[in-house]
């Protein structure tokens, strides 16, 4: 490609882990029932006033710290004034860069295809979400559940050079929000929304000089990571086509929107039609001093993030990097793993069960690990039963599958099925001799030097016992008995 | 025997002694309401179904009162005197009203104001002009016009008001009664329809300083729904009234009070300022020290413009919730923006629309620094100037307006440049959130005039005590209007 691409992101992520909304005492929770989490202030009834949710501010400051941003000395909010049916007050309470928002000028290292990359964060601010609307042919319906839900908006510098980098960053952010206990960051629930800036420039020009930058095109309302990837790639190609056709210089700075159905970006407005939001400081929220002590307290309470947990799994439990990466990819999986360990399970066994059996099965069942009927205590119990030789690994697989389907405890399943391992030497001796009696030709071959035939015979023992014989004991006994023949 | 023309303590005593019942008081107050409605057009709603309440030790129990119609009252029409809310019945009450209900007070009517408090004449409410009960060819001033008229006419001992520039303190002077707005945040604004949030104060209109103290004691208190409210449980306004003021120091401002500043002064203005100087002498005779001080005239003259810029900017934003979608009479239109435009165009009076235009203009990106930010700078300078005075003086004492109530005919809500500062200096009390009280201090041609005492934030007790002592030295305490025309 003859062009360099510059991409900047605005990532909006709802804070889903506070009890109440950001300026309202209504519940902050996703609900299928419209308009059930609503207080008068969420619908802007005359005389209602915003009250800041300290928990939301705390989480915003925590995100600010994780992103290496500077936190302000005083907390202010501002009004962004515009009219829209989903904005009952006629303004959104948000933050701008002056006065400083919850986070300014940070940077974050993330990994894209095994390579470490760094992106500069311009700012992070805390604001309220708008209501959501559904449009029908003859009317629109507004759902105020979302109105006032806390929202973190993160603005990056244009430091991404491909859709892959942008998406890798978003995935890193999603992981951070999840691990820090700030948000589920679930796009399916509409919790993550992005605006994307894309411009291209000739490859041989110096990208540190803003004069060489191309015309910035902003794409609004991209609501999934795959959408971000598609929108960026579409927009890059569209701009390249303009360059090749010699029409690029005529293209004005503009705002477009991503249309998922046609998989294309559509012109919304040019720079001259940009909205003047008439920002001013929200007078109903007094400026709030953010003390050093409080910041310190928040800093100490930052939970272990994905990469820290991954390091720990590798160093302390000797788990492979590959498996550790799988375990930390989704926080609920890492939590499941750690809970299993807390119940006394062997880390390697737990990791194996989760990475090779559990995740694949959940995937097939199309459920999340949080919906799994097999719990960490079930898994810990199962691992213990195998370790203690109560059941064989072979049997354990069947018990695992049944526990996953029924939610019954492994102990119960084993006793219901009468499963147990034969560990009694005399009993195994009896079966071994039966097998030997039935296979004189194999003994013959063994005696003639085909030593490996012993494996076949052990297999026959396992078959006769339906896998309940202890495999190593069966092997020892077989070796001894065959010599006697 | 009538009671509604007496003081709260006198009425309470009569109730306690069983000389009268709450039910009888309500009946008397409602009869007077209808009488005053015919004469002054002071009410949006008269609550003919109002019931008496149990008489307790609370001084306000069982006693009728009036509520300015920009207070949200549960189940009772609350219009803000605007067509945009002409059918709005809230489902919650303002905190201040809830507090009065808890004290056993009985709301008997809702009083007319200038539309949403945005006027100083009492002539712009959607139910028409409020006339002055002393002289029906004159205005009450505004915006708390109906409350002032009703208290002056003896409908009840007190009514609530709100004050953004002088909306309690000016009508009080024109109607010969007491008007008091406490320190910003002492009374919660939750449920008060906002005009300009950083300037809006709840307050009270009464016929004596003691009554103002009693009512405010009941209305005030920190409110979890209003972040700008503060804990005043250690402030006991009534208990602090001891009339001991001999060591107090007052000042008045030469640039406002000296007749020489007004070369074309009317006879009314001359007599008003002479009367004011008599009040100063009276203060001195009470043992207070009173100094004439000088304040930069340029700064003083910048006050009205500063007020217009800040109040209009905040009002434009505050009233963006009025779209007719959620409350108010919904307008017709093909699309949502057309519906909203029709609702707002039809619903608001021209005066308000003019203010919205100013508010939008001063907030536009290209004008914001020149107007809005400069206005905030001047606000700061004026407040600093007053704070400097409060370092040396307990309070500033100044005449209210340029004389008695103005004629309705030919009145415009426009500024007369010559006496602008005399008319508008009370705004400085709103800029600083200072406690400020107006009491009657005489008559000009049978019409009352007032004097204002303003102190530093949180010094409400001191301010009220000075007013109390001065009131005691004059003959206007508890006066009921005597109709002259």
Describe the 3D structure.
- The complex is a heterodimer of chains A (485) and B (485).
- With 485 residues, chain A is of the alpha+beta class.
- Chain A folds into 3 domains: 3-296, no CATH class; 306-416, no CATH class; 425-484, Arc Repressor Mutant, subunit A.
- Helices cover 40% and strands 20% of the residues of chain A.
- In chain A, a hairpin with a 4-residue loop joins strand 7 and strand 8.
- Chain A is elongated, with a radius of gyration of 30 Å.
- Chain A starts with a strand and ends with a helix.
- With 485 residues, chain B is an alpha+beta fold.
- Chain B has a domain at 8-247 and 453-472: Amidase signature (AS) enzymes, CATH 3.90.1300.10.
- Helices cover 38% and strands 15% of the residues of chain B.
- Chain B contains 17 helices and 13 strands.
- In chain B, the strands form 3 sheets. Chain B has an 8-stranded mixed β-sheet, sandwiched between helices.
- In chain B, a hairpin with a 2-residue loop joins strand 12 and strand 13 (447-455).
- In chain B, helix 4 (145-152) runs parallel beside helix 5, helix 11 (303-318) packs across helix 13 (350-363) and helix 11 (303-318) crosses helix 14.
- The mean pLDDT of chain B is 96.
- Classes of the chains: A alpha+beta (485), B alpha+beta (485).
- Chain A binds chain B through residues 40, 43-52, 79, 81, 83, 85, 88-91, 140, 276, 278, 280, 283-286, and chain B through 71-72, 78, 80, 85, 88, 90-92, 94, 189-194, 196-198, 224-228, 313-314, 316-317, 319-323, 325-327, 336-337, 340, 360, 363-365, 368, 372.
């Amino acid at each position: 490609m003859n062009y360099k691409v510059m991409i900047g992101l605005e990532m909006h992520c709802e804070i889903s882990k506070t009890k109440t909304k950001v300026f309202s005492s209504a519940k902050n929770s996703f609900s299928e029932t419209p308009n059930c989490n609503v207080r008068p202030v969420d619908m802007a009834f005359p005389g209602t006033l915003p009250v800041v949710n300290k928990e939301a501010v705390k989480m915003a400051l925590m995100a600010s710290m994780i992103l290496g941003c500077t936190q302000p000395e005083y907390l202010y909010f501002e009004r962004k004034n515009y009219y829209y049916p989903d904005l009952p007050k006629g303004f959104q309470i948000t933050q701008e860069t002056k006065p400083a928002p919850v986070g300014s000028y940070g940077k974050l290292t993330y990994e894209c295809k095994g390579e470490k990359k760094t992106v500069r964060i311009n700012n992070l601010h805390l604001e309220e979400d708008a209501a959501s609307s559904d449009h029908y042919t003859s009317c629109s319906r507004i759902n105020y559940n979302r109105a006032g839900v806390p929202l973190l908006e993160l603005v990056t510098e244009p430091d991404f050079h491909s859709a892959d980098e942008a998406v890798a960053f978003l995935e890193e952010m999603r992981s951070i929000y999840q691990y820090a206990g700030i948000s589920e960051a679930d796009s399916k629930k509409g919790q993550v929304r992005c605006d994307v800036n894309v411009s291209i420039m000739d490859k041989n020009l110096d990208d540190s000089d803003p004069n060489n930058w191309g015309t910035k095109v902003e794409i609004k309302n991209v609501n999934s990571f795959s959408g971000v990837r598609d929108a960026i790639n579409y927009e890059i190609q569209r701009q390249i086509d303009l360059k090749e056709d010699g029409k690029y210089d005529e293209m004005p700075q503009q705002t477009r929107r991503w249309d998922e159905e046609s998989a294309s970006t559509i012109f919304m407005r040019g720079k001259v039609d940009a909205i003047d939001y008439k920002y001013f400081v929200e007078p109903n929220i007094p400026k709030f001093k953010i003390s050093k002590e409080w910041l310190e307290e928040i800093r100490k309470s930052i939970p272990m993030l994905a990469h820290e947990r991954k390091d720990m799994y590798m160093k302390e439990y000797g788990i492979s990097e590959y498996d550790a990466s799988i375990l930390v990819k989704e926080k609920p999986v890492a939590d499941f793993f750690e809970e299993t360990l807390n119940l006394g399970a062997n880390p390697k066994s737990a990791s194996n069960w989760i990475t090779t059996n559990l995740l694949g099965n959940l995937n097939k069942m199309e459920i999340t690990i949080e919906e799994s009927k097999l719990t960490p205590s079930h898994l810990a119990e199962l691992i213990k039963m195998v370790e203690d030789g109560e059941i064989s690994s072979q049997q354990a697989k069947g018990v695992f599958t049944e526990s996953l389907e029924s939610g019954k405890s492994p102990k119960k399943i084993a006793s219901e099925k009468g499963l147990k391992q034969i560990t009694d030497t005399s009993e195994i001796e009896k079966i071994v001799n039966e097998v030997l009696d039935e296979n004189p030709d194999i003994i013959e071959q063994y005696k003639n030097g085909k030593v490996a035939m012993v494996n076949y015979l052990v297999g026959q023992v396992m078959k006769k016992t339906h896998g309940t014989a202890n495999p190593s004991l069966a092997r020892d006994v077989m070796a001894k008995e065959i010599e006697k023949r | 025997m009538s009671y509604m023309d007496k003081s709260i303590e006198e009425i309470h005593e009569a109730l306690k002694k069983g000389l009268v019942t709450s039910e009888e008081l309500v009946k008397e107050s409602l009869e007077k309401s209808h009488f005053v409605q015919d004469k002054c057009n002071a009410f949006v709603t008269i609550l003919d179904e109002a019931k008496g309440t149990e008489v307790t030790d609370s001084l306000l129990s069982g006693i009728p009162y009036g509520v300015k119609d920009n207070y949200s009252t549960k189940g009772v029409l609350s219009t803000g005197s605007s067509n945009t809310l002409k059918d709005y019945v809230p489902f919650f009450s303002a905190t201040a009203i809830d507090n009065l209900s808890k004290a056993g007070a009985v709301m008997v009517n809702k009083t007319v104001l200038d539309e949403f408090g945005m006027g100083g004449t009492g002539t712009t409410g959607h139910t028409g002009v409020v006339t002055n009960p002393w002289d029906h060819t004159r205005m009450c001033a505004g915006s708390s016009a109906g409350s002032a008229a009703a208290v002056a006419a003896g409908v009840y001992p007190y009514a609530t008001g709100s004050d953004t520039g002088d909306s309690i303190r000016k009508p009080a002077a024109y109607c010969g009664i007491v008007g008091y707005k406490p320190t910003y945040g002492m009374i919660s604004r939750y449920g008060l329809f906002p005009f300009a949030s950083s300037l809006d104060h709840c307050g009270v209109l009464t016929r004596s300083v003691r009554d103002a103290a009693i009512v405010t004691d009941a209305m005030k208190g920190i409110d979890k729904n209003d972040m700008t409210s503060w804990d005043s449980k250690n402030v006991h306004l009534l208990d602090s009234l001891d009339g001991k003021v001999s060591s107090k120091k007052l000042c008045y401002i030469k640039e406002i009070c000296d007749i020489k500043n007004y070369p074309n002064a009317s006879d009314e203005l001359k007599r008003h300022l002479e009367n004011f100087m008599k009040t100063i002498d009276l203060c001195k005779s009470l043992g207070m020290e009173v100094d004439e001080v000088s304040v930069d005239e340029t700064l003083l003259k910048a006050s009205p413009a500063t007020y217009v810029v800040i109040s209009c900017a905040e009002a434009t934003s505050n009233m963006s919730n009025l779209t007719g979608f959620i409350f108010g009479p919904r307008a017709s239109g093909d699309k949502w923006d057309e519906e909203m435009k029709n609702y707002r165009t039809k619903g608001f009076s021209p005066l308000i629309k003019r203010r919205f235009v100013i508010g939008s203009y001063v907030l536009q990106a290209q004008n914001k620094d020149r107007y809005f930010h400069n206005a905030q700078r001047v606000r700061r300078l004026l407040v600093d100037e007053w704070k400097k005075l409060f370092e040396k003086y307990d309070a500033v004492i100044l005449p209210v307006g340029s004389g008695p109530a103005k004629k309705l005919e030919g009145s415009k809500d426009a500024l007369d440049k010559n006496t602008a500062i005399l008319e508008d200096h009370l705004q400085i009390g709103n800029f600083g959130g200072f406690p400020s009280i107006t009491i009657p201090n005489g008559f000009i041609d049978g019409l009352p005039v007032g004097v204002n005492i303003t102190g530093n934030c949180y010094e409400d007790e001191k301010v009220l005590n000075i007013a109390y002592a001065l009131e005691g030295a004059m003959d206007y305490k508890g006066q009921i209007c005597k109709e002259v025309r």
